[in-house]
Amino acid sequence: MQEDYIIQIKDLHKTFHTNNGSIVVLDNINISIKRGEIFGIIGLSGAGKSTLVRCMNLLEKPTSGSVIVDGHDLTSLSESELRLARQSIGMIFQGYNLLMQRTALDNVCFPLEIAGISKMTARMKARQLLETVGLSDKAKAYPAQLSGGQKQRVAIARALATNPKVLLCDEITSALDPTTTQSILALLKDLNQKLGVTIVVITHEMKVIEQICNRVAIIDKSHIEEVGTVDEVFRRPKTAAARKLLYERSEHIEKFTGNGRLLRLVFDGSSTDRPIIAEMVLKCGALVNIAFADTKNIHGKIYGQMLLQLPEDPIAVNRILAYLDAENITYQEETDHDN
Amino acid sequence: MTIRELLDLFRQLYEVIIQALLPVKDLLKLTAEGFLETLYMTIVSTAAAYIIGMPVGLILTVTDKDGIKPTPLVNGIIGFIVNVLRSVPFIILLIAVMPITRAIVGTTIGSSATVVPLVIAAAPYIARMVESSVKEVDRGVIEASLSMGASPFQVVYKVLLPEARPSLLLGAAITTTTILSYSAMAGVVGGGGLGDIAIRYGHHRGQTDIMMIMIVLLVAIVQVLQAAGNWIARRNDKRIR
Asked: Are B149 and A93 a contacting pair at CB < 8 A?
């Protein structure tokens, strides 16, 4: 059976022309996003991810290539057809982009007004949506009176007003604190499950991808470097760009470690909440130094990575490696990085 | 002293005061007329200039190279006309457009005749004011409404105008006071109003006291207009609080 793709991007190129010459922002991008999934696109700033998501509703016109959303090639539509198509592609932004002179309720009514829906019906729908995002008591508040998280909830309600099939999220948690980020992500996941809306998440934060995405694409220097399930890509990154992104934060720590060999363990959720390192030390009778650790417990499973400094004794090292193999923990030896 | 004598004294006092106040009565009448003429010129000119200047300002914004429908040709032509009109000093424009004034109003003298050059001078000014107000609207909000499938027309009247409302109101207060001060120059061509009185009595007849009264009145009107404009703009801004 052929996969049911809701968004297909084929041979997409985007070049910006500036006074200082042309800049290639997206180069030969091919992505297929399945109906109903939460798809993440992660990359450092300047990688082109924001331009890529703007190509998905043609806010940014591709230089060449096609963008097929729900069976329609957006690049071949007339302006009025494109406006209609955009009503089934919701979008949320880092800066919320709410209308500052309208109440929360009227902000949610806004896309319905554009779609030509009667005021009565629009208000009813908007009230429902505000309830869905947990803000029914703030219907009459203006954006200036709301917190960042509340504003983003209004923006989500607004984006959902026209029952879109796709929700594009451009760095929507980057301006929020960790607790608010968690609640917004939980809301998105919930909406994905309840409404079946396909969600595309653009971010530079691994945590966002880990928490809600089914599949992820890694974008670096205008190219898609890797696409796969979050488990696959985060456990065994195939490309240098992916490794750089995933291990970014531990890079500077490595420089401070001594002469011992360094082993990087990757926890992908398959190992359960057990004191693995302590067990390893006891069973192997070998001491290790934890040079770096960034792990978290999600639903009783361990995700993240750890950098161990191994003992000098090669026999002890072998015992440790054997233990890790037996426990099915992914590891790789760190060699000196050139970069 | 009897009550009769006391009443007589009061009557004499009253006569003296009335005699003293007679020129003041004339002055009051003169001032009231000038005040109404100034108000008439300012209000009619501002309204008419907005009817022309507002759409021009919106077209300038929409057709700008960063606008929602970039159209360099239209933007260039309208921008050029606006700049030319803006660069002619009002006192010269007042005289230069006299044939147009005569064609429209039938005369070049009086308050109504002054409205024509006032509108010609104020409309391009308003166009630029509106343009700068509307350009303050956050690019992201415009992008968001485009992402919902809004047409350029919907963006203008559902996003740009309401979102720029406080700034547009402030601009209107500034524009009105500018037109008010322009209208004072109308005295040169017998346009009437407080400015006309100031020039006629103060300059031609050397009655500086009357000129001073007119200046104080003009200052007071500007103050009241500006304060009212600020207050309305503030009340209409939902970004505060």
From this structure: no
Q: Mind listing the pLDDT tens digit for each residue in A136-173?
A: 999 999 999 999 999 999 999 999 999 999 999 999 99
Quickly state the pLDDT bin for A273 (edges 50, 70, 90): low
Third-level CATH fold of A5-244: Rossmann fold (3.40.50)
- CATH architecture group of domain A250-334: 2-Layer Sandwich (3.30)
Distance from C-alpha of A298 to C-alpha of A274, rounded to nearest angstrom: 13
Query: What residue has token string 């970039």?
Result: B70
C-alpha separations of B240 from A67, A106, B119, B236 in Å: 41, 18, 34, 9
Determine, for residues A110 and B158 on separate chains, whether the beta-carbon distance falls below 8 Å: yes
- Output the average pLDDT for chain A: 88
Q: Enumerate the β-bridge partners of residue B106.
A: none
Contact B150 A83 (CB under 8 A): yes
Please report, for chain A, the start and end positions of each structural domain, with discontinuous segments joined by +.
Answer: 5-244, 250-334
pLDDT band at A256 (very low <50, low <70, confident <90, very high): very low
Number of DSSP helices (H) and strands (E) in chain A, helices first: 12, 14
* Residue segments in chain B with a per-residue pLDDT below the cut of 50: none
Half-sphere exposure of A338 (CA within 13 A, CB side): 1
Domains in chain B, please, with CATH?
32-235 (1.10.3720.10)
Q: For A95, which of B140, B146, B163 is closest by C-beta distance? A: B140
Do the chains contact at A83 and B165, CB–CB below 8 Å?
no
At A299, the pLDDT band (50, 70, 90 cuts) reads low
Q: What does the alpha-carbon distance between residue B74 and residue B60 come to, in Å, rounded to a whole number?
A: 8
Q: How many other CB atoms sit within 10 Å of the CB of residue A28?
A: 14
Tokens representing B234 are 């503030």
- Helix (H) or strand (E) holding B118, with range, is helix B111-134
| Average pLDDT of the segment spanning A182-209 | 94
Q: Give me the long-range contacts of B152-155 (CB less than 8 A, separation at least 24).
A: B152/B62, B152/B68, B152/B69, B154/A114, B155/B68
Instruction: Please count the CA atoms within 13 angstroms of the CA of A84 that sit on its side-chain side.
Output: 7
Q: Which residues contact B159 (CB under 8 A, 6 or more apart)?
A: A99, B137, B141, B142, B145, B150
* Of A76 and A296, the one with more pLDDT: A76
Considering only residues 128 to 167 of chain A, which have any Cβ-Cβ distance to chain B shorter than 8 Å? 142-145, 162
Q: How many residues does chain A have?
A: 339
